[in-house]
Amino acid sequence: MPDIAIFASGNGSNAQRIIEYFSGHPAIRVSLVLCNKPDAYVLTRAEKLSVPTRIFNRKSFYETSEIPEFLKANHIDYIVLAGFLWLIPQSLLNAYPGRIINIHPALLPAYGGKGMYGSKVHEAVIASGDTESGITIHFVDENYDEGRIIFQAKCKIDAGETAETLAEKVHALEYRYFAEVIERVVL
Ligand code: GAR
Question: Can you give the pLDDT at residue 99?
Fold first, then answer.
């Protein structure tokens, strides 16, 4: 059975949605949640759903092979980034070629890159005057938000839209599609 590890840095609402979607799934299992922030709410969510967690720091992530070794020891087949904000090091890319999937809260290639995450993305989209935004699910490579696009979905930006209201629309798209797209890639 393919095993997925989710990496997340914060709230973890997408991580929760993905764990719930695959709970009881006949062919795919979410078996780990990894996090770089000891106080991130995603850890509470994972514990409530009985998914084991591991916290790591910058040094172990970028200067050792602890994380790829840990993932291999746990028979992880795919990595899903669900609100994970650090660049993936080459050692992890080499360990999981074409098997790391990210979600970005805008229509890449626009509004991606270092520092573009969460509400910063929505603020930039609204400031630009664009009439639509959306989500991008893509494979991860050595640059922020540049790997091959797997799936996109759009939403309209209405008059008076704020970063908060746009975030709600984008989250709704994420919850609707992310787990299904992961399922399609993995199966
Ligand atoms: C999601 O909207 C995700 O697209 C975004 O962070 C949010 C995490 O929310 N990711 C990025 O901005 C990556 N550049 P969540 O923790 O509630 O799932």
Answer: 98
For a ligand 1 pocket test, name from 39, 117, 140, 144 the mutation site with the most ligand atoms within 8 angstroms of its C-beta.
Answer: 117
Token pair 């970028």: residue: 62
In the CATH hierarchy, which fold is given to the domain comprising 1-97?
Answer: Rossmann fold (3.40.50)
Q: Identify which of 53, 56, 54, 63 has the alpha carbon closest to the alpha carbon of residue 89.
A: 63
> Among the atoms of ligand 1, which is closest to the Cα of residue 8?
16
pLDDT digits 0-9 by tens, 26-54:
999 999 999 999 999 999 999 999 999 99
83 has pLDDT over 90: yes
User: Is the pTM higher than 0.85?
Assistant: yes
Catalytic residues: 104
What lines the ligand 1 site, CB under 6 Å? Answer: 8, 10-15, 82-83, 103-105, 117-118, 121, 170-171, 174
Query: For atom 1 of ligand 1, which residue has the closest CA?
Result: 83
pLDDT of residue 1 exceeding 90? no
Q: Which CATH number fits domain 104-176: 3.40.50.170, 1.10.760.10, 3.20.20.70, 3.20.20.80?
A: 3.40.50.170
Which H helix or E strand runs over 55? strand 53-55
Q: Residue 109 corresponds to which tokens in the numbers above?
A: 């290639």
Distance between CA 27 and CA 7 in Å, rounded? 20
